[in-house]
Amino acid sequence: MSPATPAPESGGAALELLVHGVGGATPESMLDDPRTVRVTGDRTAAVYRRSEDLDAEEHPERYAARPVPEAYCWSNLTSGDGTRALWLLLLPFMVANLAHWMRPPAEGRPALVRLYGVVVRLVALTLTVLLTAAACEVALDLTAWQCAATTACTDRYSWLGFLSAGRGGWWSLPGRRLALAALVPTALVGLLWYLSNRTWSAYEAQRPPTGYDAPVAEPGADTEAADAAEPDGPVELRPALGRPGFWYGRRLVARLRAAHTAAGFLTVAAALVTAAARHDAGAHGLRTVLGWVLQTAVAVLAAVVVGVVCRRGRSESRLDLRVERALVSWLPAASLALLALTAVYAGWSRPGWTSSGTLPGDAVFGALTLVQGGLVVALGVVALLLQRPRRDPRTALRGLGGPAVAMLACALAGVMSGGVAQRVADWLDGPATPGMGDRGPRIGPPVLLSWQASVIPVLLLLLLAPAALLAVRTVLDARRLRSAVEADYAAAGERDPVRTGQIAAGRARASLTDSAPVLVGVVSGATLLLGAASVAGAWASGNVPGRAFDGAHPAIASLASVTQALGSWMIGFGFLLFVTWGRRAYKDASARRTIGILWDVGTFWPRAAHPFAPPCYAERAVPDLTWRMSSWTRSTGGRLVISGHSQGSVLAAAAVWQLQPATRSRVALLTYGSPLERLYGRWFPAYFGPEALRALNRTVHCWSNLYRATDPIGGPVRVPAEDGRPAVDAAVLLDPVAYGRTRRHPLPEPILGHSDYQADPAFARCRSGLLDRLPPAFPLQRTESPLEQPPLDQGMSGMSSG
């Protein structure tokens, strides 16, 4: 990148604030200079300048012909130290959190908006329960209950010898084995709590500027109904991303963290008390009464958890600085205490109690699957009701993007939990497919998990049809676009069929991004139907697919056996690949940065549904950018253009929405390779839909957007000219800039696609035009360096350890 391009010759002091996109960039590459200095910020996110520009404010005569370039680097927010590799475990939680923000826009329908948020939060709660139940399946059922009861298994793994039922030791009693094994899922829940609390202290603690405290068009503290109400008095209409508390979800995350932590502990407690109470059911005495009391206590606390999750959502009309410390403390503590009591109850001596068969895992996983399917269907109904008053044809899946993504989150969690259980069962019981070994006692996971693994090959087969259609369409589009390419480069003279084909193919491949909703819809719909079929098959047969069709036609029986074996192999391979990827990311910074690209896209949004999701980096980045823009304009009276590439353009837009009106009047927005409409506008219509983007254009002083037809991520923002303002989108940039060899370009120019927008001469012209449209700088009397002066009355934002 090279921001040092010609700029206007007049207008006074000007600053160009560069914001990089996904994957990150170094300040040296952004500023095109190896000598850069961090002027504000920390190692996690900071603003850099060239060394020669460090004292630019004291020597304005040097910058009469160009703006002062600054680079905001935020990549370490998503790809910092090795602990980021642990975030791979949180992938289903991140996807569920995205579903919260994908609701259709709504006006005057606060009840439906609130209901949408409640249903998404309940889906997220089931994911925490499912992950904890999978850990219980591995530790309690497969290891402590099944393996420890089998002499052959404990002989094969000597470290389990002290649990062996055949040795008659103190730990050999089934209840005590279960109580000891419960430490594993309990530690997992504790780890999730620790990660969430650590990132909550670093990310959700960053306060946005509070100098602009005018009332906003929001009907109350409940954000989920914020788009609907008629204000009682004169207020400033601001979109959701411009509200003072949008990037400060500290209170909600703390409350949800307490609820989900308690849900995890209660899941482990339920597994312990159910197994012990099932044995005590036919007896009479203190143990039976205690079992009923503990089961009732688990049910009551579970109802409290559900009530806490269903309470009002985020508060965005103001900075909500409160934290419900009593709730945050006592709910997890009470659940952990109840778990300890159930462990003592399970460890009670019960002569004659032996572990045989499996723990009641089929019922648990089956109930979770049905609950998740029902919640996703309910979410789809709510989304359709929200979308019905006015439908934007560009909205992904006609407003059903949220339910579809929620279904994918459930599928990811199911694959992860099933993969762990399948692999541990294979490890403990040998190489045979679970449930398909020799007749007699076998160690295997619940039957439902085998059925769910069996539908994976079917799902992949179903995906072949749309994938093949997209491939054929891409080839046909490439042929069709050849004439358009030749017309665009008509001045080049001689035609080169190979060069034309390369450019046309690049444009055709870039258009595949617009087909993503089709694939997501097919996968989520098929997953919903196949998940229901797997539950029905498991409950109807009570056996794994390879055994359920033993009496059927040989072809059907063989097909069932093959799909089960293939599905078990696929889910195991996926789990091993997942672990390998995480291990490599822990040790390799470049691999960690690759994973960081996934977080760049998935963790832009605050944690409104799942507190264990990876943290929202925008809750640090947006306040950083807002403070920096405010400090420059207040200190110098100069002009400012914030220049965002790719995901950086989304951060830039969000930061502009947060500015005070006086600051916005001195700010221009330049976006390039921007997914603002192509991805965010289609998938998050309530926040980046057509109305929101037009409002952004009216909010900022001026805005220009650059894009290429070969860019698979960026595209036009589709904001037309209105109220005397020109259209935001510039003419589509040619890529490559030269068709063949010319005197100016003696070597073949590459097809850049999503990168190096600043290398195009149009970038410098567009930036110069924006700066010329801004009002000239006005002199200010300063008593301190503008790099040191706080922009508002609150002081500089806190630093983050990441």
Question: Which strand order spans the largest sheet, edge to edge or round the barrel?
Answer: 2-3-4-1-5-6-7
- Tell me, rounded to a whole number, the average pLDDT: 83
Distance between the termini: 27 Å
Strand content: 5-15%
Largest sheet: 7 strands, mixed
Based on CA inertia axes, which overall geometry fits?
globular
Number of strands: 7
Structural class: mainly alpha
Unreliable stretches covering 5 or more consecutive residues: 1-9, 211-236, 781-802
Record the SSE blueprint.
Layout: E1 14-19, H1 27-31, E2 36-41, E3 46-50, E4 68-73, H2 91-100, H3 110-147, H4 151-156, H5 174-181, H6 183-202, H7 250-280, H8 286-310, H9 325-346, H10 361-387, H11 401-429, H12 447-488, H13 497-510, H14 516-541, H15 545-548, H16 554-587, H17 589-602, H18 618-636, E5 639-645, H19 647-657, H20 661-664, E6 667-672, H21 676-683, H22 685-688, H23 690-699, E7 702-706, H24 761-773
